[in-house]
């Protein structure tokens, strides 16, 4: 839902209009649902073996077969909804969804686990702008890719131990918690810098300064045992990057 909301806000910012924005929201939502449902479907056996209580398959709330049907139905619906934005934009979005499916299987448990995040989040703003007939500046997909890559590392951090027990060894798991934090921080800061470059006026530099200060605070405060500072810092930087992303879209629209 977070990705759908960001894509919808970006669509409004570039002037897609009510119909165009609705088509973007619908396409991104079904694409995200297909990826999320496929994730739990393909990992069902692994999650059951690990006894993960955060998974609905493990708790008996849903059967793997139901997830499979829902994931495939959402994927099929994503095709015409994406093409409502035009052949080029639609193809770009379908490539982003296909990349995300590759994360679910087979890249999730490999050193290449970050690649689908880089590709999918890099293509997402391009999909929105191309559907509006707006040229895509080089720095916008690069910022989206950096934001997605950073999200991958920070999203994996709370579940490193549970994922290892389930046999998942993506790039964050192989780097370890501390190095994964620094790589994720560098990627989020890179996204802030690229977006600051593209946003006119004082908003860009101010946003970058806030992101840099927040990460510095997180690097120090996060050393304390049991500290939640790192999690809060990531939320602050992510929100700053999303705000800059929407402002960048408005500047290009």
Mind explaining what this structure looks like?
- By secondary structure, this protein is mainly alpha-helical.
- It is built from 13 helices and no strands.
How do you describe this structure in short?
The protein has 253 residues and is mainly α. The protein has helices at 2-13, 17-42, 44-50, 56-59, 64-83, 87-104, 115-131, 139-156, 160-165, 171-175, 177-198, 203-221, 229-252. The longest helix has 26 residues, at 17-42.
Q: Topology, please?
A:
Layout: H1 2-13, H2 17-42, H3 44-50, H4 56-59, H5 64-83, H6 87-104, H7 115-131, H8 139-156, H9 160-165, H10 171-175, H11 177-198, H12 203-221, H13 229-252
* Element-level helix/strand string: HHHHHHHHHHHHH
Q: Which structural class should the secondary elements be placed in?
A: mainly alpha
Strand runs, count? 0
> What does the largest sheet look like?
none
- Count of helical stretches: 13
Beta-strand fraction estimate = under 5%
What shape does the CA trace take? flat
Calculate the terminal CA-CA distance, rounded to whole Å: 24 Å
Oligomer: single chain
Low-confidence parts lasting 5 or more residues at pLDDT below 50?
Answer: none
Radius of gyration: 18 Å
Average pLDDT, rounded to a whole number, is: 89
Portion of residues within helices: over 70%
């Amino acid at each position: 839902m977070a990705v759908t909301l960001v894509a919808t806000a970006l669509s409004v910012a570039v002037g897609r209009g009510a119909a165009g924005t609705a088509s973007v929201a619908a396409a991104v939502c079904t694409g995200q649902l297909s990826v999320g449902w496929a994730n739990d479907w393909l990992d069902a056996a692994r999650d059951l073996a690990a006894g993960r209580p955060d998974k609905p398959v493990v708790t008996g709330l849903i059967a793997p077969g139901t997830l499979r049907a829902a994931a495939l139905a959402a994927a099929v619906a994503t095709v015409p909804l994406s093409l409502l934005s035009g052949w080029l934009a639609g193809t770009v979005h379908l490539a982003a969804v296909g990349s995300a499916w590759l994360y679910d299987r087979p890249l999730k448990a490999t050193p290449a686990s970050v690649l689908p995040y880089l590709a999918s989040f890099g293509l997402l703003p391009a999909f929105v702008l191309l559907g509006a007939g707006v040229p895509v500046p080089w720095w916008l997909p690069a910022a989206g890719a950096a934001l997605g890559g950073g999200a991958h590392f920070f999203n994996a951090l709370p579940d490193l131990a549970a994922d290892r027990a389930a046999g998942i060894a993506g790039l964050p798991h192989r780097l370890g918690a501390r190095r994964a934090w620094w790589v994720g921080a560098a990627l989020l800061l890179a996204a802030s810098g690229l977006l600051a470059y593209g946003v006119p006026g004082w908003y860009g530099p101010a946003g970058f300064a806030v992101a840099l200060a927040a990460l510095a605070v997180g690097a120090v405060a996060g050393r304390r045992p049991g500290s939640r500072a790192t999690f809060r810092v990531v939320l602050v930087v992510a929100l700053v990057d999303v705000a800059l992303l929407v402002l960048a879209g408005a500047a290009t629209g």
